[in-house]
Structure prediction request, 297 residues.
Amino acid sequence: MSNVVKEPRTVVRKFLARPQHEGVGATVRRSIGRFELKYFDPFLVLDEFSVSAPAGFPDHPHRGFETVTYMLQGAVTHEDFEGHKGTIEAGDLQWMTAGRGIVHSEMPAAQGTQKGLQLWINLSSKYKMIEPRYQEITSKDITEAAKDGIKVRIIAGEALGIKSPIYTRTPTMYLDFTLNPGAQIQQPIPVSWNAFVYILEGEGIFGNSRSLPITAHNLLLLGGSGDGLEAWNKSSKSLRFILIGGEPLGEPVVQFGPFVMNSQAEIDQTIEDYENCTNGFEKARHWKSESTTVFGY
Ligand code: FJE
Ligand code: FE
Prediction:
């Protein structure tokens, strides 16, 4: 393989994401966003979620960041206060820029267990109050590239010379890699970006070919300098992991649940806006999701 990475990043920290309760009866394995890793600029939360009806995430608001939902199994129906509604099925992606405000529900759409990843990406102060926006791509339209026992689904950014059509307000890369036994990768990452790996299936070796294999539900923070990731599948099973990177914002972060702003005054204003249905929350006044009614919350 050509040497596309000159200075591979090393793994500096490892977190095992254990199941915890979230929403109403749902389970998340939270890696970023938990107490020991409150923020990894620009990333606020990474949840590997697992939800079966009637559990879910009924009507709740967001302001000041983006949520990226990538389904792994089953389906989730979302519905917002502007009437934007749809079902995110296995392999589909929803990239939601909440901006000044979204109120929505995210509920199971099928029998059995729905699984996926939800990433919260912070927005810079100049974009926190922009109009909400969705970018949605169904599984069949997510670009895939394959080479030498590597398959990569390009959610955001670029891999193996192929670019995703997703526009990232905060510059972000999001790649879903599957490596056959014996395969290895070299993936460039911009030097100034924060980046991490989250293992979904199998076991892989990351950063240094002599390091110990890491298994599912672990998050690996990649060292601050270096121009890319090197990883190996030295096992006899397939390895699947996510590589995410983003340009740090370097701004103060004040978070109150689903509101993420730069100062306490902005958070106080947001709580007021949400309570009074103003400054982007107007449509919340008379709205209740259909699924909330169906599920009887
Ligand atoms: C939220 C608690 C929550 N992780 N993963 C508090 F659970 C949520 C929330 C989610 C969520 C939704 C999906 Cl579909 C997947 C998630 C947390 O909705 F927004 C707040 N504030
Ligand atoms: Fe939400």
Notes: The pocket of FJE (ligand 1) is lined by residues 22-23, 28, 47, 49, 57, 60, 69, 76, 106, 118, 257-258 (CB under 6 Å). The longest helix spans residues 264-276. The CA atoms of residues 162 and 276 lie 46 Å apart.
